[in-house]
Amino acid sequence: MSNKYKVLLVEDEQNIRTLVSTMLDTNGYQAIVAETCSAAKLMYDSYMPDLVILDLGLPDADGIQIIHHIRKDALTPIIVLSARTGEQDKVRALDLGANDYVTKPFGSAELLARVRAALRSNRHSSDEGRFPGGCFVLGKLVINYDARRVFLNDDEIKLTQTEYNILAFLSEHQGKMMTYSTIIKTIWGDTADDGSIKKLQVNMDNIRKKFGVKPGDATYIKNELGVGYRMDL
Amino acid sequence: MKRTVRDILITAGILITAFLISIAFQNVFRVDEHISTLFAFAVFLISMLTQGYVYGIVSAFIGTLAINYAFTFPYFAFNFTIPVNLISALVMVTIALLTGALTTKVKYQEAIKAESEKERMRANLLRAVSHDIRTPLTTIYGSAATLLESKDDLSETQKETILKGIKEDSDWLVRMVENLLSVTRIDSGKVKIIKTPTVAEELIDSVLVKFKKRYPDQNVLVTLPEELLIVPMDALLIEQVLVNLLENAVMHADGFDRLSLCVSHRDEYAVFEVQDNGCGIPAEKLPKLFETYFEPDNNVADGKKRNAGIGLAVCAAIIRAHDGEICAENSSEGGAVFRFMLHTSGEQP
């Protein structure tokens, strides 16, 4: 019991709450639920969960407040549940530090995959990170951070400086959706305008070509239209 | 602004024409009597063709002055003591006012008519959609109730069949709601859709990921241009169009075994084509293919095909909102081709 991951679920819809907490319980997580923003903060402080699943539309306050509250002093992964139409909300939540989002309606497989990825990424960045000699391995993709070399299916892939930087950045945040503006700020130090987004798009296109990915089964780098990219299996 | 310039040009043009004809009358036929009639006609035309009352009234005064100055004795001098001239001035101003009032009223009524047409379309859509939504809801509601009430009497296979039914119908509802959301996204307010530069390959990637979630066994042949193609669009809406078109092929192209999605770059346009080699589109359906859903009385009995209409209607609405073009035709090799084109340049045309 005690070594289960604790997941705080913040959701005001009774049915979704029951559904998600059942999903979590039957898959070996301990679900803690909160219905309101204030209850969520209280629960977070007293239980210190390993992961938070958060619906942004809460009755008493904007769910964004909870992201602020958590990100003040912790890197606890946050997965946002969102409606389809709110890309702006998604981007805002991600830029404020949410790790990922799941669009409603979602299936159990999808949500659980995101939960696993988010928990994994949290472990990864705290354990291995950028240690000297650190190697990043994801499926058949290997990144050697020291030598700045990338291998896919045992073949080396020659990337330019910028392409490598983008890839390494995404790999350091494996499982986390990185927005355009976050990537651009990290790689070029620019703000995200049309010009810099185009620069990013061109580089991503080159990376995809070098990886030889076909649209529809893009492994390793997932693209989310209008939002950003995520490294994942 | 454009409108004002146009109206001023119309006014000036008609007045100058009337003036020249009057001079011709006077010099060639030596008659003055019809000149006020001619100017009255000019004022009438101007009031009809321009917006509001101003142009008509101004031209009525100019006409009066012109007649007074040039065409009544003493020629080419003002004389305001002639009662006939005052009467023609009154007549012209009245004509200007009445015509202006009439045309304004007509224009207003046209606007109302267009609005009510839109309203009618919306009502039809709503009626059709509510009707269509009820069917899967009945299944879901009934199935859930059955499972709750008599779960002990059902065999595992029966339960699984019922649960699959629930999932299938919820999937259908999800798609319907996505389409409706897209429609409201276009319709909401007078706001134009916001286009962002989108990489065609990423768009297609996203479309195929979505499509394969629903139809894991359906293979799609993809052709993309070699170079990086960036198209300004509302990516979520265009994604919806492509998913709808692919699904449309799966649902309606009976007997197809090849489904392809092709993106190419022609001049100033990005061309997207979804092609199958199935049964094709019946010729009588082709002309109204994209609007059937908005027509009343299209009670489709075949439950499997009910999502058809709204899907294509939404596609057309989205492409229209992008100032693009969409069309459907039967390919010479058999099967149907759906094609749409978007501008590759310019944020907002």
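The radius of gyration of chain A is 18 Å.
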